[in-house]
């Protein structure tokens, strides 16, 4: 494989975790709570562009309390994973797609774009420094969290003149435990995004605003919240941090179209592609909650699942709300479409299946 020459200077961590500390930390990590020894970092200044590309020991950031990101959430982020194959090699899944989405998010948040070249070089240099942290156990991976933040100390509501690009890495297993499928709370009082807002942007505010409805979901015994569109309060959009897909009894697929208020998931796109590859009809359109519920009740819709980088493919067993409680028939059953597409996706990611679309990139 070709190795891109890295413009990222490596300043090694002089006190990395010992092998034993790392093994313990990687044994059964809670999602996003364990971090590797290093982070990638680059700094942008207005008029100078990106500079100081470096891999440095993971450490708290010295951040001015007036930093714009802390006040006005001028930031964008990404999530993608590196997978260890059986021969020990490490691979990223569609990192170019995440680079493109981060650039789009940066444009919307009036942040400087990180080029695809810098994005890939940062990931590759960080993974090279922390290769021992890429798990090899089934279902586990190294979750990479690229982040662009406005660091300038300024309370003016205007694009910051100083910005940092940071990438951290976390060994992870499953995001949600889902034996038999998760329960979903349909939020009736809260919406996630509106037209012209930042719903299709991967930025902190969308997730901050989802936490109260997400807590409401949890209080009702559900693992995730589902939002309806803000304009008509009618159509299902997405979950707190993942996309929604339905499988009909005839084998066809139904999922909300990308309206600008929904995050264009890389996993969503990959799964729809794999399902189309096997000849399934995939319909992307507005789906009323009532249509979904009636479909589930009549048996026309057999499965629902959530998909995302963190969630991968998680079957949904129940939809719950104040005036609603429906059970999805095919959830978590052997032979489900969700199981099959999860297997196909993960076979590809872990190097067990053919990569027909050239999605994997060796690092
Ligand atoms: C991801 O799937 O990568 C996300 O950013 C979503 C979040 C729920 C972890």
Q: What share of the residues does DSSP label as strand, in percent?
A: 25-35%
Q: What small molecules are bound in this structure?
A: 2-OXO-4-methylpentanoic acid
Derived structural class: alpha+beta
Largest sheet: 9 strands, mixed
Task: Return residue spans where pLDDT drops below 50 for at least 5 consecutive residues.
Answer: none
Q: What is the average per-residue confidence, as pLDDT, rounded to a whole number?
A: 95
Tell me about this structure:
By secondary structure, the protein is of the alpha+beta class. It is built from eight helices and 18 strands. It has helices at residues 19-27, 68-72, 95-108, 116-129, 204-219, 266-277, 289-298, 337-349, and strands at residues 9-10, 38-45, 49-57, 75-77, 80-84, 90-93, 141-150, 162-172, 182-186, 224-228, 236-239, 243-248, 253-256, 282-285, 301-308, 312-321, 324-327, 360-362. Strands 1, 2, 3, 4, 5, 6, 7, 8 and 18 form a nine-stranded mixed sheet that branches. Strands 9, 10, 11, 12, 13, 14, 15, 16 and 17 form a nine-stranded mixed sheet that branches. A hairpin with a 3-residue loop joins strand 2 (38-45) and strand 3. It is globular and about 60 Å long. Its EC number is 2.6.1.42. Keywords: Amino-acid biosynthesis, Aminotransferase, Branched-chain amino acid biosynthesis, Pyridoxal phosphate, Transferase. Its cofactor is pyridoxal 5'-phosphate. Belongs to the class-IV pyridoxal-phosphate-dependent aminotransferase family.
